[in-house]
Write a structure and sequence with these properties.
- The complex is a heterodimer.
- Chain A contains three helices and four strands; from the N terminus they run E-H-E-E-H-E-H.
- Chain A is an alpha+beta fold.
- Chain A has a single domain, classed as Alpha-Beta Plaits (2-Layer Sandwich), CATH 3.30.70.
- In chain A, the strands form two sheets. Chain A has a two-stranded antiparallel ribbon. A two-stranded antiparallel sheet of chain A has the order 2-3.
- The longest helix of chain A is centred in the last third of the chain and has 10 residues.
- Chain A is elongated and about 50 Å long.
- Chain B is an alpha/beta fold.
- A five-stranded mixed β-sheet of chain B has the order 3-5-4-6-7.
- Chain B is elongated and about 80 Å long.
- The chains are: A alpha+beta, B alpha/beta.
- Chains A and B meet through helix 1, helix 2 and helix 3 of A and helix 3, helix 8 and helix 13 of B.
Chain lengths: 100, 338
């Protein structure tokens, strides 16, 4: 079942001019956001994008940009309290449920 | 750090590489269950380094994983039919996806381990198979540029690895997709419940205070507040993940508030509470469930940071106000008898 969240994929950008069609973005995306048509990647399902940053991190020509972050309210709150910005290093080891 | 029991050693490049079993022992299984409940979770790591499963040779695949023991165990348990090398990075005992987000399962760490552990002297190929979720931390083009190793991102789940390897490192859409099925959600529910202990403590303390003085009526007064509010914690930590896909709204806090209200109403009717008492329970149960549900964004696999920020900015103040009014009404209901 496909579940979506709020503000998903708003910062994801793909520059078709720069794309070399290597397909890395498709290989690493956990939510099938991209498709390949005519040897170029396209954003097919922006609403599924959780902005994890895997695609941009592995895009050799730098065609993809995204503001990658952690989709964790607890990290957001602890960042606000510490004034550091969202950070999911809850203590020495992780304690966030995400980290099990 | 956990001791790994090796089956033996393989001599390669003048080194003794420990061979780990592709079967989990009862102790491994118990350890995995315990960390799901938060027991010993910060110490559940293994020594980074090179390991072997089965009887690998120079052509065998080289897999990379994190030194969180649960990640390592999940991986080796799927390798019964495979001879492989495993390169374990130092992610400080954190799983692959979280460590990749943090950068400890990252390009630099991989490059360093390739230098210090020299797997290139054990295998004849130059291909590393990484879990797909490591891609937020590891940049394949950068690793190639710096070390000459080719990084292939394998399937999300270790159980698809044998099929991935036997198909010549080809991944189908299902292997790439992160799911968040009922079983996945319930696997992370226990830790949510364990981490809600400050709520359980606060609720218990408040319920005891409201029920004082001790005497014949104390247990009944205590339970009339304690049970509905403990229930709200269970609703936020266990019912919420169970019902996640069918609840309306996309913001977790709204979904949580909705089942919190439903629960408060149910508990009030069940306890035949007064109008003020019912309102009080609903106004406290809703923000408790809502806040805990919002925290589940961290465990979920499809939430982005911008959305989480929006939920926190818009949600926390109304939650505090609701809980404060509800708490006041609970006290009014208790002392004024309304």
């Amino acid at each position: 079942m496909r579940m979506t969240y709020i503000r998903n994929g708003e910062t994801l950008r793909l520059d078709g001019e720069l794309c070399n069609g290597c397909g890395r973005c498709i290989e690493v995306c956990p939510h099938e956001v991209f498709v390949m048509t005519d040897a170029k990647a396209w954003i097919a399902d922006r609403a599924a994008c959780m902005e994890c940053g895997a695609c941009a991190n592995n895009c050799e020509p730098g065609a993809i940009t995204v503001r990658a972050g952690v989709g964790c309210a607890t990290a957001v709150i602890s960042g606000m309290l510490r004034g550091t910005g969202p950070d999911c290093s809850c203590g020495g080891g992780r304690k966030g449920g995400c980290c099990g | 750090m956990q001791e790994l029991k090796a089956n033996g050693f393989i001599e390669a490049d003048g080194r003794r590489i420990p061979v780990v079993p592709a079967r989990l022992s009862p102790r491994d299984i118990l350890g995995g269950w315990k960390v799901r409940w938060g027991i010993g979770r910060n110490r559940y790591s293994i020594q980074p380094g090179l390991y072997a499963v089965g009887a690998p040779n120079a052509e065998s695949p080289l897999l990379v994983t994190a030194n969180y023991k649960l990640s390592f165990d999940r991986l080796r348990a799927e390798l019964a039919a495979l001879d492989a090398w495993i390169l374990v990075l130092d992610t400080r005992g954190i799983n692959v996806w979280c460590a990749a987000g943090k950068g400890t399962f990252g390009t630099r760490e991989l490059e360093q381990k390739l230098l210090s552990l020299r797997p290139g002297e054990i295998v004849s190929h130059r291909t590393l198979i990484l879990p797909q979720l490591g891609a937020t931390g590891v940049s394949a083009p950068e690793v190639r540029e710096a070390t000459g190793w080719r990084v292939v991102f394998g399937p999300v789940r270790a159980r698809d690895l044998p099929a991935f390897v036997s198909s010549g490192l080809r991944k189908n859409a299902a292997m790439r997709r992160v799911e968040f099925r009922f079983a996945d959600r319930m696997a992370v529910a226990p830790i949510e419940l364990v981490q809600s202990w400050p709520f359980l403590l606060g609720i218990t303390a408040a319920s005891v205070l409201l029920a004082i003085p001790f005497g014949p009526g104390f247990p009944a007064r205590l339970l009339s507040v304690l049970l509905p509010l403990i229930g709200a914690v269970l609703v936020g930590t266990v019912f919420f993940p169970a019902l996640l896909p069918v609840l309306p709204f996309r913001a977790f806090s709204l979904k949580g508030a909705l089942i919190g209200i439903a629960w408060g109403l149910t508990a009030s009717i069940a306890a035949s509470a007064s109008i003020v008492g019912s309102l009080a329970l609903i106004l406290v149960a809703a923000p408790v469930a809502s806040f805990l549900a919002m925290g589940f964004t961290g465990a979920s696999t499809f939430t982005c940071q911008a959305g989480a920020e929006m939920e926190v900015r818009r949600g926390v103040i109304p939650m505090i106000v609701s809980a404060a009014i509800g708490g006041g009404l609970l006290a009014a209901s208790r002392y004024l008898g309304v």
